[in-house]
Amino acid sequence: MTDVLHNDSATADQPAKTIQMRVWRGDANGGDFEQYDLPAQEGEVVLDVIHRIQATEAPDLACRWNCKAGKCGSCSAEINGKPRLLCMTRMDTLPEGPITITPMRAFPVIRDLVTDVSFNYEQARKVPAFNPPPRPADGYRMQQIDVERGQEFRKCIECFMCQDVCHVIRDHEENKSQYAGPRMFIRYAELEMHPLDTNDRRELVREKMGLGMCNITKCCTEVCPEHIKITDNAIIPLKERVVDATYDPVAWLGRKIRRKTKRTAEEASVQPE
Amino acid sequence: MSDLEHQEYDVVIIGAGGAGLRAAIEAKQRGLKVALVCKSLLGKAHTVMAEGGVAAAMGNVYEEDNWKVHFRDTMRGGKMLNHWRMAQLHAQESPDRVQELEAWGALFDRTKDGKILQRDFGGHRYARLAHVGDRTGLELIRTLQQKAVSMDIDVFMECKVVRLTTDLDGSVTGLVAYWRPTGEFITFGAKAVVMATGGVGKSWKYTSNSWEGTGDGHALALWAGAELIDMECVQFHPTGMVWPLSVRGILVTEGVRGDGGVLRNSEGTRFMFDYVADMFRAETAESPEEADRWYDDHTAGRRPPELLPRDEVARSINTEVKAGRGSPHGGVFLDIASRRSPEDIRRRLPSMYHQFMELAGVDITRDAMEVGPTCHYIMGGVKVDPDTGATSVPGLFAAGEVSGGMHGSNRLGGNSLSDLLVFGRRAGMGASDYAESRSGGIPKVDSTLVAQYMDEALEPFTRDEGENPYDLQHDLQEMMQANVGIIRTGSELDDALGKLEEFKERANRLAVKGGRAYNPGWNLATDLPSMLTVSTCVAMGARDRKESRGGQTREDFPKADPELGKVNFVLRQPSGGGFSEEIKISPEPLPEMPDELMAIFEEQNR
User: Fold this and answer.
1) Residue B61 needs a FRET pair 20 to 30 A away by CA distance; which of A142, B267, B410, B566 works?
2) Which of residues 493-552 of B touch A (CB under 8 A)?
3) CA–CA distance from A150 to each of A113, A144, B102, B389 (Å)?
4) How far apart are CA B479 and CA B337, in angstroms?
């Protein structure tokens, strides 16, 4: 045993306090809360506790996860009613008493904490692709200041918690057919602000993606684990640009001169080869 | 059987990380019918965890850089166990692959003149890693994902492959898988299959890998008759988090050291100066003063020893801790707080800042991080033809971490993302050429095999009492950490192989509760056969390679053996094998580097 980093002596002395987890168990046909009582362990996040429940009492407890480091956005669920990443929520930051874990409410339940998030993947398929001019021999040139706006939005880990919390679709399934949601708005904003892109998606965002239905309550910004300023930096500027494109002749002319190559929404909605 | 879902494709790609996505894009561009099958949701693969950057000799920061220097750095980092042709193709083609990502929408950090910025990393002579802060893997996977989506590639998400199927000649005919959300089986008929399943780290207790890193592709390929090479070469990344225990193993990017961070022991000493091997002495700084001049101007001093290749740094940390100079929780200190301004740290290393703040309550702009080695990457893997990714099984191709040879005995940081792009594309081309060359339709998948493989996967449901898969996984991880960890000895490896046989017995008695729909206990039961196969391969290689080289460190054979530096250890099983069948191992000569490349290597070494 020569690996000196192999030791387990983290919490030795005092008896651990008990934590109470109320986890929703069920599927599309319904379900109920099940309570699990476990000894607390130092430094644990909620996902650790879920894993301990799986390894001991409930091996079939369904929970989606991958990286366990806040980088993949798989383990989204609701902790005491709020959308959170299970892997980035430390147990010692939660209030005393039973902790309630439920699946994301805006999406259909598959089983237990796992939901069907295909709505988001369908929306992603509708985005007209990035379309730059041909690449110069020595590569594209862009300035740091020009890429930074897009970089903020590309921090998105697709946890879909902004979609989950958005009141336009959280309790209004019927709106999903005409509303892309905050995750997709930052994608549209990113492309709109990309220094090289030549597609104009502004009419599409207004007419088909329901940008106007967002009334900037900033719920999405509050839950974003990447701290992306979804409302201020993406949705509001996007709304302004869309309005410019539609109503303001001066801005329209300015854009026409500056970016002659932008296409119309109709053209842009066709995927390039 | 009749209501079993069946799909037919020219090319099926298993795994949707960087290599799988890049292969899919290539095959789709050829106009073939392409499916991408992955265990998780699209965009969640382990590639997102890559932080520091993608290595490519573009020469944007140091004009002196070119593919020859990159080739030389890669071979040296791998202690010459690399397949020379892979190292050559990789160094030559990675700049184009990075540039191509920009044409698909990636937004890399920029130099002042608007080119792609490149950062320093261990083992690379020049600043060479194109990056986006410390979230380069996310940028790479999102770019490839968005490109793949815009091309309308069919994606089968949360779909776990249990076996490949082959015909009587041993050629690939397709595969058997199940949908995790429903537990229903699905079969694919395919002319060509590309394996792009990533790594094996989940068999160790402390690892940077996610639950997916169970070595499925290594095992599926071996069982189908393909060869694995040098499986003993496992990389322990020097800097994983060590505290709190529940996050132990999570990666701390090498970018921290590339950007000026230094390693100190409990006495405050910058100890890496004491561990510079002869091979690296000529190019490594002798004093902290010299090293500190290097960060701003690489001609004003030599490289800091913190930026030696990962195997060197990991072993040094292990030695410091063993000598009683470790940090309170059994690591060492990684300090950037005293060396860079809080603004710089937050800008250059934003996700490290959040990771430590939120998981450990440590503000890295004020305090040092506690870090120690974590199981990170396997250099060994499926033996492939460098140009096409073809394996020894007709119709089976492999790319990325699951393939072997590219990195020799130790991978340089940043060479993984570039590997995915270069060889993902090449495997996509190789598989497409093969599929196009096959006359006739999609091969038939043998229904007897399908029934057998489904029965095997469902067997744990037939037992009321038996082994708990979580217990077996736990015991496997404890054992591999203790016996097949960063430092190994013959007796412990023999012991490991004995225990692995016991684990295989236990795996034949697994029992799971509940239904088939999204049942993690059952999912784990179907991952354990791969984990056991891969662990056995690693332990066998480690037992037989009686030397220390890169990711293989033997306490009882502490030096590199020049004769063993000329061989790959090759593992085989007859086609149609399985996790309880015998695996054979033999040393076989390494492909010999042609004279003109040897000349380049020696010229660059001067």
Assistant:
1) B410
2) 512-515, 517-522
3) 32, 10, 13, 35
4) 37
